[in-house]
Specification:
Order of helices and strands: HHHHHEHEHEEE
Strand content: 5-15%
Shape: globular
Largest sheet: 5 strands, mixed
Distance between the termini: 82 Å
Low-confidence stretches: 1-31
Structural class: alpha+beta
Length: about 240
């Protein structure tokens, strides 16, 4: 009788443990599913929406002065960016995006696809709709997401210390209220102003050169002695004379 009771109790404990493990596994999968889940290994020659999603997340690893195209084509530039991402997080840097790389991306992102250390609210203190700028609300928000992933890469490269965003998307009215330029990249949602914190404004401007920003304005450039400005303009324009840029 004692043995039968012991076996029954052991069975109950095992069932409870299995059930708990199932809950944990389901929760982990759900976190990825809430945003985006990749269903195949990606490598050079791959193409499609899943490559586009990957390019957004490794957009901060194009190399010095580079900008990674978000075009859904897994070419040499994407493979190189993936290698840098993998190396930055201690993964095998082979340029092939498989389960280990996807797991790291899942760990870095929140359920709304933003990276762990930045949010849509940080990139938009103007309004809650992302409307009223130079592009559609959908485009402005998508541009901000790409900016955040580049900032996440930059933050990691700077020792995982906070990077403070002081201004992001602006509608025309918000831009006018703060005296922004009439053609400001903030109107497109693809710009971020950074304030000093653990890192100086010059350190931020210097590091940004490695993370896919075509526009870098900082100390020494008119009107930028109190912040570093980063954006995704179509061609490179870097000017932070006080920082050697």
């Amino acid at each position: 009788m004692f043995r039968r009771t012991a076996r029954l109790l052991l069975s109950l404990v095992m069932l409870m443990a299995a059930g708990l493990a199932g809950v944990v596994a389901t929760a982990g999968t759900a976190q990825a599913d809430d945003c985006y889940t990749w269903s195949r290994t990606l490598s050079q020659g791959s193409s499609g929406a899943d490559v586009t999603q990957l390019q957004i997340r490794v957009g901060g690893y194009p190399g010095y002065g580079g900008v990674l195209a978000v075009d859904g084509q897994y070419g040499p530039a994407t493979a190189a960016a993936v290698k840098r991402f993998q190396a930055a997080y201690g993964l095998t840097a082979d340029g092939v995006t498989g389960s280990a790389t996807f797991s790291k991306i899942y760990a870095l992102q929140d359920s709304d696809c933003t990276p762990a250390h930045f949010s849509y609210a940080e990139l938009n203190d103007c309004n809650s709709t992302w409307s009223g700028g130079a592009v559609s609300a959908e485009t402005a928000k998508a541009n901000a997401l790409r900016t955040m992933w580049k900032l996440e890469a930059m933050r990691h490269a700077l020792g995982d210390q906070p990077v403070t965003v002081t201004s992001g998307f602006r509608s025309y009215s918000c831009n006018s209220a703060v005296g922004g330029a009439s053609n400001s990249r903030h109107l497109y949602g693809d710009a971020a102003d950074l304030g000093a914190g653990p890192h100086s404004l010059c350190k931020l401007a210097q590091q940004a050169r490695n993370h896919g920003f075509n526009g870098i304005l900082g100390p020494g450039y008119p009107g930028h002695n109190d912040h570093t400005h980063l954006d995704h303009r179509s061609s490179r324009y870097w000017s932070a004379p006080s920082c050697g840029i």
